[in-house]
Write a structure and sequence with these properties.
about 10% strand; Helix Hairpins; about 70% helix; two-stranded antiparallel ribbon; alpha+beta
Length: about 375
């Protein structure tokens, strides 16, 4: 709730409480006026008025619990005692019965207030249980949808893996044939140009098939202690030509030297290169791509920060969906594969693209206790 709305709600609630108390005291006042204005000769009317005191007492107990019931009963007693002393002092037995009635006022307020408090507590517990049940049902529905989606993706992955495997064999034959043709054509001729184009497109197709296989049949990471800084240095070196073509400057930032991490350096290099390449491609000419490293307790953090236009709100929840891409020639598997690799390392990858001036991709990997101890 916003602060302004919270203050307004509290003011409204206070106003309701005030109105209720005014109504209760007014009702007690009216009954007391009836007592004082009625002659003692009309004893039956006084008996009826006396019973009227119970109405505001019971209502006060229902509204405000035990405290409200006792306060209303005490107010009724304070208002009624002078009438007993003034009107019934000469009739001692009847006056004694009226004083006993005051005790019943408080017992009624106490009992009804207790029941009201119990009912209010049970209602609150029921509402909380209903909310918890609704949340559980929602999580169950979401889990069911995720399972259905996982089944579909699993089936699609198996199909893709089988298809990619079958495609890769003829690709190898085509690549060999093109190499023979390229060795026999004269440089600078149309045939040589067409051969270069075919070789480039064949390499792109082979890379695409490799991405499908990486997603459909991921390799288990071969974990060992390795330097995350060395992996980043290698990624920056590999990224150099692409960054130069895009006229984007790649910079390194490190607040401290990170301890070694248990990881598969090749797979982490693949993730960082994929994320950084996305950042370079999303960055405008003359901008900067920053790769920032830091340590957060027992986590090694790598932030890849570009200066692009951010990520549209309608795309943010689909960023890690397989085959989702906004690129003309993208496969939509890069981030999905990266997420799977990071998860296999016990880490997590998050993307904040809400800023219009760029996107931050954060990769967190756990630091083993032994490596932590070595840095202390």
């Amino acid at each position: 709730m916003e602060p302004g709305n919270r203050q307004t709600g509290e003011s409204d609630e206070l106003g309701v409480v005030l109105v209720r108390w005014v109504a209760l005291m007014s009702a007690l006042g009216v009954v007391s006026v009836l007592h004082y204005a009625t002659s003692a000769e009309h004893a039956w009317l006084h008996v009826a008025y006396q019973r009227l005191y119970y109405a505001p007492i019971v209502v006060g107990a229902y509204w405000f619990g035990v405290r409200g019931g006792l306060i209303a009963a005490f107010a009724a007693a304070v208002a009624y005692v002078p009438h007993i002393q003034h009107t019934w002092a000469s009739n001692v037995p009847y006056a004694a019965s009226q004083y006993a009635e005051l005790v019943l006022f408080h017992l009624a307020g106490l009992l009804v207030g207790f029941l009201a408090d119990v009912q209010r507590r049970l209602t609150g517990e029921y509402q909380r249980a209903a909310m918890s049940l609704e949340m559980a049902n929602r999580e169950l529905r979401e889990s069911h949808e995720q399972l259905k989606r996982a089944d579909r993706l699993s089936a699609l992955g198996e199909i893709a893996a089988g298809l990619a495997h079958e495609i890769r064999n003829p690709l190898a034959g085509m690549k060999g044939a093109l190499e023979i043709v390229a060795s026999r054509v004269t440089a600078g001729t149309p045939e040589a140009e067409f051969t270069d184009i075919a070789t480039t497109e064949l390499g792109r197709l082979d890379s695409l098939v490799g991405e499908f296989l990486s997603y459909a049949r991921p390799r288990e990471p071969e974990l060992r202690l390795a330097s995350l800084h060395d992996v980043i240095d290698h990624v920056v070196l590999l990224l150099g030509p692409e960054a130069e073509r895009a006229r984007v400057t790649v910079t390194r930032e490190a607040t401290e030297r990170l301890p070694d991490v248990r990881m598969d350096p090749e797979q982490i290099r693949q993730v960082l290169f994929n994320v950084a390449l996305n950042g370079v491609q999303a960055s405008p000419v003359g901008s900067e791509l920053r790769i920032r490293t830091a340590r957060d307790h027992d986590w090694a953090i790598v932030d890849v920060i570009d200066q692009g236009s951010g990520i549209p709100a309608e795309h943010r929840h689909r960023l890690f969906d397989p085959f989702f891409t906004t690129k003309t020639y993208g496969t939509g598997l890069g981030l999905a594969v990266s997420q799977r690799i990071i998860a296999a390392h016990g880490g997590h990858i998050d993307i904040d693209g809400s800023d219009r001036e760029g996107t931050v991709v954060q990769i967190a990997l756990p630091v083993p206790p032994a490596a932590l101890a070595a840095t202390r």
